[in-house]
Write a structure and sequence with these properties.
The complex is a heterodimer of chains A (about 260) and B (about 280). By secondary structure, chain A is mainly α. Chain A has 2 domains: about 1-45, no CATH class; about 55-260, MetI-like (MetI-like fold, Orthogonal Bundle). Chain A has 11 helices and no strands. Chain B is an all-alpha fold. In chain B, α4 (about 95-110) packs antiparallel against α7 (about 150-175), α7 packs antiparallel against α10 and α10 (about 205-220) runs antiparallel to α13. The two termini of chain B are about 45 Å apart. The chains are: A mainly alpha (about 260), B mainly alpha (about 280).
Chain lengths: ~260, ~280
């Protein structure tokens, strides 16, 4: 069949489109010029500047971001695993409701989730800060963990549970020694996804944050908005990119492991 | 009986969490839209339609319409770009397919604010791109690449494109490409084969892609705020301004309920079409 070249050309152009801004940013993080209009030479000074005492707030924001990401992923891993098991093993009316409830936070625009949580916290008189950010992040991460673990469960060989029971394992032993080890790659992959989503989130955090509880995306946003310290943003972003790639690469390996074993 | 107890133990934690922190806040949002604003920036006592009446003020319909228009244009462009990509990916085999899918996904895994910031820096008036376009004589000295509707649309397409590519790719992967050859053998032109065979064949993926781009696009706030001008504001910007600018929470709630109602339209349409397709396969 004679096939048109057009799709391949569109594909190539889109790849360029996807990478140009990111590469521009990475290259410029090593640019000596203060403004990115010209290339004046290679430097690492913007990376060094991140360690200046005057940029301590960046590190505080980073610490808070990581603290929130680690704790919200940990809670979401538990919630998501429980609800994935419920959705997989039971076909009741309750689970149909549960299914809708899990998917809505994934679909709805994050802006709406942020504003509704803010209004809820204000109505209750809750002080906004790290705790409210944490609650918001768990709320959207739990659904994503559920979806990932549910995918892992779909390739699950139910007969191993029956086999373990036949061999005299108690319910608790089956959970701890059979189900959890088999689900572990899915749970970890879901946790890594939560971690990235939490670190990535700007919109929801923006609504539910309080004074003094700045996260890294909020900090970067205000620097970008006021065009302050643009070379520093390039440097932070490059570090951010490298770390994200490492996490994604790790989580991809986990899911690949899963597909290899289930076939 | 034990099974039911187990089901409750597995279901309750997440379901109760989502009811408390997702359903109740959504209801609170609707309730607050009928409350007056208090002078301290909170929510007052009593009931009023003031915030809903304010939606009639000439500002809001313009912005609502712009939000819908920009989101629809973004969706159309994303689908138009994603279709040929899905077509190529779906026909490929083995290692290269995995590599190309990764190449498409990787930018999407980078921080959202950083991606938008990268465009802002790239298109900046003092930036390399604009300066070189001026020196090449492609654009005039007074042309800005940033702070206009074109920039907003481009960054929206950039942000939401993977949401269109992935479901279309998933559908194309299951599509039987020999059907295209059959259509060609029966005398269909390449274009007809694609529009009459390929596109109907991946219609489920097309629906999902449409919803996955359109719904978050309607809730855009960061993109018009960072790369748009004052004339490119979307409903999300107004919600943020009412919330953190002049702190009129009932007004923010009203705008959010309006946005929620708009996003329900594509959700219901997709749900309905999906169900119809399942009961009456083409």
């Amino acid at each position: 069949m004679k096939s048109s070249r057009l799709p391949a050309i569109v594909f190539a152009l889109v790849i360029v489109f996807l990478y140009v801004p990111i590469l521009f940013l990475v290259v410029n993080s090593f640019n000596e010029a203060r403004f990115s209009s010209t290339w004046t030479g290679f430097t690492l000074k913007w990376y060094a500047a991140l360690f200046n005492p005057q940029n301590r707030d960046l590190w505080e924001a980073t610490q808070r971001t990581l603290l929130i990401a680690v704790s919200s992923s940990a809670v979401s891993m538990i919630l998501g695993t429980l609800s994935a098991c419920a959705l997989h093993w039971y076909r009741t009316k309750l689970q149909r409701l549960n299914y809708g409830m899990i998917y809505l936070p994934v679909i709805i625009p994050d802006l709406l989730m942020g504003i509704s949580l803010l209004l809820f916290f204000v109505a209750l008189g809750v002080t906004l800060g790290t705790v409210t950010i944490l609650i918001a992040h768990i709320t959207f991460c739990a659904s994503f963990v559920t979806v990932v673990v549910l995918g892992r469960l779909q390739g699950f060989d139910e007969s191993v549970i029956a086999a373990a029971r036949d061999l005299g394992a108690t319910r608790w032993v089956v959970i701890r020694r059979v189900i959890l080890p088999l689900l572990a790659p899915g749970i970890v992959a879901g946790g890594l996804l939560s971690f990235t989503l939490s670190v990535d989130d700007y919109v929801i955090t923006f609504f539910v944050t309080g004074p003094g509880s700045t996260t890294l995306p909020l900090k970067i946003y205000s620097m970008v908005k006021h065009s302050r310290e643009l070379p520093l943003i390039n440097a932070i972003s490059t570090i951010f990119l490298v770390v994200t790639f490492l996490i994604v690469w790790w989580s991809q390996n986990l899911t690949r492991d899963q597909t290899v074993r289930s076939h | 009986m034990i099974r039911r107890k187990n089901e409750a133990i597995l279901t309750a934690p997440t379901l109760l969490w989502l009811i408390l922190f997702f359903v109740v806040p959504s209801i609170a949002m609707v309730v607050i839209s009928f409350r007056p604003a208090s002078i301290y920036g909170g929510v007052g006592e009593g009931w009023t339609l003031d915030a809903w009446r304010a939606l009639g003020n000439p500002n809001y319909p313009v912005i609502l319409w712009r939000t819908v228009r920009l989101s629809l244009v973004t969706t159309v462009i994303c689908l138009a770009l994603a279709l040929p990509i899905a077509f190529v990916l779906g026909r490929m085999q083995g290692k290269w397919r995995t590599i190309l899918v990764m190449i498409v996904i990787v930018p999407f895994w980078t921080n959202f604010v950083i991606r938008v910031a990268a465009w802002r820096i790239l298109l900046h008036p003092e930036g390399m791109l604009r300066q070189s376009l001026i020196s090449l004589g492609i654009i005039g000295n007074d042309t800005l690449l940033l702070y206009n509707e074109g920039a907003v649309l481009m960054v929206m397409v950039y942000t939401y494109l993977p949401f269109a590519i992935l479901p279309l790719y998933a559908a194309a992967e299951r599509f039987d490409y020999s059907l295209l050859e059959a259509a060609r053998d029966l005398g269909a032109s390449g274009f007809t084969a694609v529009t009459r065979v390929f596109i109907p064949g991946i219609s489920r993926g097309l629906l999902t892609a449409m919803a996955l781009v359109l719904i978050p696009a309607l809730g855009s706030y960061v993109i018009p705020d960072l790369v748009g001008g004052p004339g490119d504001e979307m409903i999300g910007n107004k919600i943020a301004q009412r919330t953190l600018g002049d702190r009129n929470l009932p007004q923010a709630a009203t705008l959010s309920v309006a946005l929620l109602l708009i996003t329900l339209i594509p959700m219901i349409v997709v749900y309905y079409l999906n169900r119809r397709e399942r009961t009456h396969p083409a």
